[in-house]
Amino acid sequence: MAEMIHPPKPRPGDRIAVLSPSAGLPAIFPGVYEQGLARLREDFELVPVEFPTTRVMGADPRARARDITAAFADPSLTAIIASIGGDDQITVLRHLDDEVIRANPKPFFGFSDNTNLLNHLFGLGVVGYHGGAVMTSLARPGRMHPLTERSLRAALFTSGRFELTPSVEYGDEPHDWADDTLRDTEPRMLPAEGWTWSGAHRTVEGPLWGGCLEILSWLLQAGFVAPPERFDGHVLVLETSEEMPSAEEVFRTLRNMGERGMLERFAAVLVGRAKAWHFDRPHTPEQKAAYRAEQRAAVERAVAAYAPDAVLVFDLDIGHTDPQLILPIGGAALVDAEHRRVSVTY
Fold it and tell me: Residues 6 or more apart from 125 whose CB is under 8 A from it?
C-alpha cells in the first residue's frame, strides 16, 4: 500500500483557511455561514481566514484553484475547511498546483462535492477528512450535535485512534436556510436504530477511500480515480446526497466499479445512513425506511457479486445526515465484525 502523509494538526489559536471550492453559498446565505464561523472561533478557538472566492457564487474554477493552492502554500495557515459542497468541483482539479500541495500538506475538511478534493489529495498521498463543512456541521441550528462536535474536535486536534459510535438519533430534514427565525431551533431528530452489519464475519484493517457516491461516479467517468490495484485491502466509504439516487442507480454505480476490477479490492464497505428527505420529496417515516432498505439491498447485491468476502456496515452517521462523524480518507480504519466496532485513526 502507498505511504500516506498525515498532515500536522492545528492547535487552538491557529489561523485556518475557509474556502468555497464548490458553490459560493456564503454569498447567498451569509447568516448561516456566519453562524458556522462563530462556532469555529468560539467553540474551537480557531481563526478563520477567508480567500477571494469564499463568498463568491459562480467563481471561475481557475480562481477557486488559485485559492486552494494559496491556502496550502501559506505557512501561517494550519488547516483548511470547506464552507459547503456543490456540483462542479471536478472542474477545479486540473487547475491545482500539485507540487505546492504535496510540499505543504494540511488537513482538509469537507464532504459531498468535496469528495473531489479528498480523492485528489488521496492521489497525492495526503490524508484528508470527510465531513465538517462550515455551513452544515458547524452551523447546525441551535447547537452543534454533540457527536459531531466530539468527532470534529478529535479529527482537528488529535492524531490517535478514534472509535466511532452509533447515534441514538438522526436527522435528515434541515431547516430552510432562508428562514432566519429558525436559526436557534434545533432540527427535527428521529430515533436511530444503530448500525446494520452484513457480509463477511471477520476483522479487517485498511486505509479508507470514498465519499459521496454520486461524486465518485463522476470521478470514475472523468478518469480521475487511481487504478484498481491501488485499493487492495482498503475500506470503501459510501454515502448519498440530498439528490437521493434510486437504488438501481446505486447498484449500477457499484456494478460498474466491479466490472472495472475495483470493487473486489475492498476488504470492507462502510455505508452512511441514506438521506431520505428533501424539500421537494418530503418522505414520510415509512417512505424513508423503504428508501433506505432498497438502497441497502442494492449495495448488498453488488458487493455479493463482486466482493463476497467484504464486511459491510450500514447506517453510519456520515455524510449528508445529522449527526456527522468525520472519516480520514487515506487514514486507517479497523472494522471488527465480531465485536461490531469501527474505529479510525485521525
Answer: 2, 3, 4, 5, 102, 330
CATH code: domain of residue 214: 3.50.30.60
Question: How far is C-alpha 9 from the geometric centre of its chain's CA atoms?
Answer: 18
Q: Is 243 contained in some domain?
A: yes
**Grid coordinates belonging to 97:** 498546483
> What value does the mean pLDDT take over residues 238-261?
98
Q: At a CB cut-off of 8 Å and minimum separation 6, what does 49 contact?
A: 15, 16, 17, 18, 77
CA distance 124 to 119: 9
Q: What is the DSSP letter of 136?
A: I
Contacts of 153 (CB under 8 A, 6+ apart): 44
How far apart (Å, rounded) are the C-alpha atoms in residues 6 and 273? Answer: 27
Q: What pLDDT is attached to residue 218?
A: 98
Instruction: Tell me the residue type at 239.
Output: E
- 1 lies in a domain? no
Q: Identify the pLDDT of residue 2.
A: 76
Tens of pLDDT, residue by residue over 143-196, are 999 999 999 999 999 999 999 999 999 999 999 999 999 999 999 999 999 999
Question: For the segment 223-236, what is each residue's pLDDT rounded down to a tens digit?
Answer: 999 999 999 999 99
**Could you tell me if residue 109 is inside a domain?**
yes
Judge whether 60 and 93 are in contact, CB under 8 Å.
Answer: no
The CATH number that applies at residue 90 is 3.40.50.10740
- What pTM was computed for the model? 0.97
Q: Are strands 341-345 and 268-272 parallel, antiparallel or unpaired?
A: unpaired
| pLDDT band at 132; cut points 50, 70, 90 | very high
Q: Are strands 311-316 and 196-199 parallel, antiparallel or unpaired?
A: antiparallel
Give the relative orientation of helices 285-306 and 247-259 as an angle to the nearest 10 degrees: 20
CA quadruple 60, 69, 225, 300: dihedral, nearest 10 = -90
Residues 135 and 98 in one domain: yes
Confirm whether 130 is domain-assigned.
yes
Answer left, alpha or beta for residue 194, where phi above 0 means left and psi between -120 and 50 means alpha. left
